[in-house]
Specification:
The complex is a heterodimer of chains A (about 120) and B (about 110).
Chain A (H helix, E strand, L loop, with lengths): L2 E5 L2 E3 L5 E8 L7 E7 L6 E6 L6 E3 L7 E6 L4 E6 L8 E8 L12 E5 L2
Parallel strand pairs in A: 2-10
Antiparallel strand pairs in A: 1-3, 3-8, 4-5, 4-9, 5-6, 7-8, 9-10
Chain B lengths: L3 E4 L2 E4 L5 E7 L4 E2 L4 E2 L1 E6 L6 E5 L3 E2 L7 E6 L2 E6 L8 E7 L11 E5 L1
Classes of the chains: A mainly beta (about 120), B mainly beta (about 110).
Chain lengths: ~120, ~110
């Protein structure tokens, strides 16, 4: 079964750091570009970041640029999001999403919740 | 950045009736080299991740009921549910992937009248 499972969310104080992971199973991660999308409580979806299939190219939303780093370990079939200098407005459910030109945006993880609060 | 604007923000339709959700982008999502519109539609129910319904503006995903259809090109797109069922109550989002950032519409909440 094709699935992705996020982990690493939790409660963190403003200014703190968290590292999210997204473990893929049932498919080969290296065949896909990968994205992170977040959803603040009660609000809409917001694209956060993407990484190409071999990790050589990344892109970020302006709101997280310079604070978040996306990376991947294809040997471990795992995607990461390192989040530093966290702010209250980063509070959200974070989803990993796979992308290919043949199957764009077709598989989403269940999400992991990040809460930034003192 | 490309701005995606959905209309209406909320919609109530009687069971068995047609529901139409619109999505407008601030610039064309049609790539001339491959004649594809870089737009997708999702359905999201409470406490669930989004579910992909339509890719490339009009290609229905495998397993999605054929009452769901997508249309449009360039800057104007439509998601149509031909005969609303109770299980279609959800929030619907459009999203572009023409360039980064891959912005979403604000969402349209669909309910039963």
């Amino acid at each position: 079964e094709v699935q992705m499972l996020e982990s690493g969310g939790g409660l963190v104080q403003p200014g703190g750091s968290l590292r999210l992971s997204c473990a893929a199973s049932g498919f080969t991660l290296s065949s896909y570009w990968m994205h992170w999308v977040r959803q603040p409580p009660g609000k809409g979806l917001v694209w956060v970041s993407r990484i190409n299939s071999d990790g050589s190219s990344t892109s970020y939303a302006d709101s997280v640029k310079g604070r978040f780093t996306i990376s991947r370990d294809n040997a471990k079939n795992t995607l990461y999001l390192q989040m530093n200098s966290l702010r209250a407005e980063d509070t959200a459910v974070y989803y990993c999403v796979r992308f290919s030109m043949t199957d764009p945006w077709d598989v989403w993880g269940q999400g992991t919740t990040v809460t930034v609060s003192s | 950045d490309i701005v995606m604007t959905q209309s209406p923000d909320s919609l109530a339709v009687s069971l068995g009736e047609r529901a139409t959700i619109n999505c407008k982008s601030s610039q064309s999502l049609l790539l001339s080299s491959n004649n594809k519109n870089y737009l997708v539609w999702y359905q999201q129910k409470p406490s669930q991740p989004p579910k992909l319904l339509i890719s490339w503006a009009s290609t229905r995903e495998s397993g999605v009921p054929d009452r769901f259809s997508g249309s449009g090109s360039g800057t104007d797109f439509t998601l149509t549910i031909s005969s609303l069922q109770a299980e279609d109550v959800a929030v619907y989002y459009c999203q572009h992937h023409y360039n980064t950032p891959h912005t979403f519409g604000q969402g349209t909440k669909l309910g039963i009248k």
